[in-house]
Amino acid sequence: MNISLEQAEKAIVAAKAKSIELGVKMNISIVDGGANLVAFARMDGAWLGSLDISLKKAKTARFFDMNTGIIGTLSQPGGSLYNIEHSNGGLITFPGGVPIKNAAGEIIGAIGVSGDSVENDHTVAEAGALAI
Amino acid sequence: MNISLEQAEKAIVAAKAKSIELGVKMNISIVDGGANLVAFARMDGAWLGSLDISLKKAKTARFFDMNTGIIGTLSQPGGSLYNIEHSNGGLITFPGGVPIKNAAGEIIGAIGVSGDSVENDHTVAEAGALAI
Amino acid sequence: MNISLEQAEKAIVAAKAKSIELGVKMNISIVDGGANLVAFARMDGAWLGSLDISLKKAKTARFFDMNTGIIGTLSQPGGSLYNIEHSNGGLITFPGGVPIKNAAGEIIGAIGVSGDSVENDHTVAEAGALAI
Amino acid sequence: MNISLEQAEKAIVAAKAKSIELGVKMNISIVDGGANLVAFARMDGAWLGSLDISLKKAKTARFFDMNTGIIGTLSQPGGSLYNIEHSNGGLITFPGGVPIKNAAGEIIGAIGVSGDSVENDHTVAEAGALAI
After folding, report:
1. How confident is the model at residue D107 (pLDDT cuts 50, 70, 90)?
2. pLDDT band at residue D27, thresholds of 50, 70 and 90?
3. In chain A, what's the furthest Cα-to-Cα distance?
4. Could you give the CA distance from residue A88 to residue A111 in angstroms, rounded to a whole number?
5. Which residues from chain D sit within 8 angstroms of residue C51, using beta carbons?
């Protein structure tokens, strides 16, 4: 099962709505089950450097089928996954990447959001993921 | 002058409509004046390898402010720009990349389309560019 | 709004003057609003490895519209942006990158300086940014 | 012997003057004897994609101590250096890269120019190289 473009665009609409509600400007990436980009939107005035971060968050969430922030707790100095960020052409392991599931609970892709605090990034990503 | 997300999404809607009309499945990338991604959509079932090609076409069109196919006529063996494709992390110089202009005729970004014949790629890109 | 070459060269002149005053040898990069290089100077005898660092500092400052050192305080082990340096082809998050604003306060580019202590790097970058 | 920043800036001034005389907008890169960037200028409105090309031309000219166009005649299909462009992270082998010599005739660096026809690129590069 793979996310469709229609579903990905629905997630982006929800993420943009949540961003406007929070008064933040986000980069929003949606990847499919193969961790390949399906849809992307950069809101006007959003940080340019968050483009790549939103994509890497989405990929990281799908690479390991978990929220990116969880990986970040394990990749610290002394942690079991120390510096895992060096793999896969660069991971981002702080919050803002969330797997996307279908009604049956199967993972069909992931969303990555970047542009504000990691708390807001995560809140917007979750709003996008829950729209499906 | 830079393309807005609203304009970029309008271009994607038009490009998707033209793709459906032609019965083809496309990857569609929109970049801004700085050649950075603003919006992207991969239609269901579109070639995975065309994802990167659509992005490189959009960047190439903005890098040189002309349709990508024009560069491809100059980069052939014996041509004045032979192997220019090795620059900028990889250019794509066959048709499917088109600059996007505002009402005043200023270039504000570019669209890159990939997923079918280069003729269809170009037709869809032009439909997207003309929507703005 | 984008920095002009004339403005960028003015920033480099000011940065070089400050470097001579401090008795240091610097690499100085100026990028525009799209984070693309506009002007660069490497002072005679400056560290060769600082060439890329000055460019990455300038890009990082524009990517997130803030001084690079601020990001570095957040990207430490345990910090909210831990290992953000893995994004965007490599960030530099210690001091020496500063956004450049026009008279209206709009960000039009950034300067990145590398070649001595991070304190001196930052001092020189600020001298360049304030010249505009 | 290595080009100094003062000499590199003199070459850029001459290259800009020639560009204005020709009515063209150029990206101009100067590298030293180690093929590392010393100075760079992108004229307002110059093609963004020519940034990397000007740098690769300068590096290519110094890598082989000859005008880039000469290499391009040998890198064609069937030629003795076919597809040499794949080396060194990407070469550019059409005209516009020229070695820079000191008064004693020793090569101390190179200039790479990109932004218009390869003939104009070469003319501007030569004007820059002869300024030293």
Report:
1. very high
2. very high
3. 42
4. 17
5. 36-37
Q: Closest Cα to residue D80, out of D65, D93, D89, D96? A: D93
What is the domain-level CATH number for residue A79? 3.30.450.150
Average pLDDT over residues C79-105: 97
Model confidence pLDDT, tens digit, residues A55-113: 999 999 999 999 999 999 999 999 999 999 999 999 999 999 999 999 999 999 999 99
As a whole number of angstroms, the distance between CA D126 and CA A69 comes to 54
Helix (H) or strand (E) run with residue B39 in it? strand B37-42
From the centroid of its chain, how far is CA D130? Answer: 12
Number of residues written out for chain B: 132
- The C-alpha angle D118, B61, D73, rounded to 5 degrees, equals 30
Name the residue range of residue C35's domain.
Answer: 5-130
Chain B residues with CB-CB distance to A3 below 8 A: none
**Direct distance between the N- and C-terminal alpha carbons of chain D, in angstroms, rounded to an integer:** 13
Distance CA B122, CA C87 (A): 32
Q: Which residues of B touch A38 (CB under 8 A)?
A: 41-42
Q: What are the residues whose beta carbons fall under 8 Å from the beta carbon of B113, sequence distance 6 or more?
A: B15, B26, B27, B28, B29, B54, B57, B96, B97, B121, B122, B124, B125, B128
How many domains does chain B divide into? 1
Please, what are the averages of pLDDT over each run of 10 residues along chain B (132 residues)?
94 98 98 97 97 98 98 97 97 98 96 98 98 94
Q: How many residues does chain C have?
A: 132
From first CA to last CA, the distance across chain B in angstroms is 14
Chain C adjacent subunits, 3+ CB pairs under 8 A: A, B, D
Q: Which chains form contacts with chain D, at 3 or more CB pairs under 8 Å?
A: B, C
Burial class (CB in 10 A: 0-12, 13-18, 19+), B42: buried
pLDDT at site A1:
73
* ipTM for the assembly: 0.95
Give pLDDT, residue D65. Answer: 97
Least Cα separation, residue B4 to chain D (angstroms): 20
Give pLDDT tens digits for D83-103.
999 999 999 999 999 999 999
Q: Is the CB of residue B89 less than 8 Å away from at least one CB of chain C?
A: no
Residue C1 confidence (pLDDT) above 90: no
